[in-house]
Inverse folding.
């Protein structure tokens, strides 16, 4: 394990959370803006670790919290069980702890963090941004299920760029309703983008992977994060 690959512990409420951290730079010991990377419902898999490394290669100090405490799966039914059994309040504490940890690290040069998440993590992105206010300056959900009814976005201050698939159980209407609620409650106009692809089109370990859509979304997300996380 090199300098850039770190399994880290950080405070989460009165307990401790764990995550996977990557530092930028050719020697994996650089500095840069902070970025929280939130897992899919499969857990902190090799795909999420790879994305975390890729964000570090783009110059971010990237931290992926392990919301399942080490559990991962490739089975849909098991993933559903793990997600349903994840206490929302504990996940919120772990994610808030990740923000604290990044902002307290000497390698982090930004006064805010960005948050990016995929699938289940895409939904957590917006909730975390709403809870953390000015500490999160950019929120980038990828095909996360919008929660139109429960989340209060009045505290959200982050710029928002969302990436969604046209062929998905998450309807365009639900995504647009969430964007409208964000605008009404926070004044933030979300940049919502749709791709002619299936759910999880960025995950190159799944049959749903769509190279053209993944590359376009990745380039847009990285540019957006670099613009807003300072």
């Amino acid at each position: 394990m090199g300098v850039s690959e770190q399994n880290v512990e950080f405070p989460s409420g009165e307990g401790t959370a764990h995550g996977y951290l990557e530092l930028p730079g050719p020697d994996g010991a650089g500095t840069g803006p902070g970025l929280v990377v939130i897992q899919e419902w499969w857990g902190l898999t090799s795909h999420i670790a790879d994305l975390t490394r890729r964000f570090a290669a783009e110059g971010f100090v990237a931290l992926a919290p392990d919301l399942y405490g080490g559990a991962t799966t490739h089975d849909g039914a098991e993933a559903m069980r793990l997600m349903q059994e994840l206490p929302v309040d504990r996940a919120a504490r772990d994610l808030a702890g990740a923000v604290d940890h990044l902002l307290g690290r000497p390698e982090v040069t930004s006064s805010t963090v960005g948050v990016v998440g995929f699938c289940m993590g895409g939904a957590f992105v917006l909730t975390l941004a709403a809870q953390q206010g000015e500490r999160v300056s950019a929120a980038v959900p990828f095909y996360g299920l919008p929660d139109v009814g429960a989340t209060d976005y009045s505290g959200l201050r982050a710029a928002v760029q969302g990436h969604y698939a046209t062929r998905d159980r998450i309807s365009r209407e639900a995504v647009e309703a969430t964007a409208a609620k964000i605008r009404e409650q926070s004044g933030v106009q979300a940049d919502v983008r749709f791709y002619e692809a299936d759910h999880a089109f960025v995950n190159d370990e799944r049959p749903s992977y769509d190279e053209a859509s993944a590359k376009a979304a990745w380039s847009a997300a990285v540019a957006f994060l670099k613009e807003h996380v300072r």
In short: The mean pLDDT is 93. The chain has one domain: 6-228. The two ends are 29 Å apart (CA to CA).
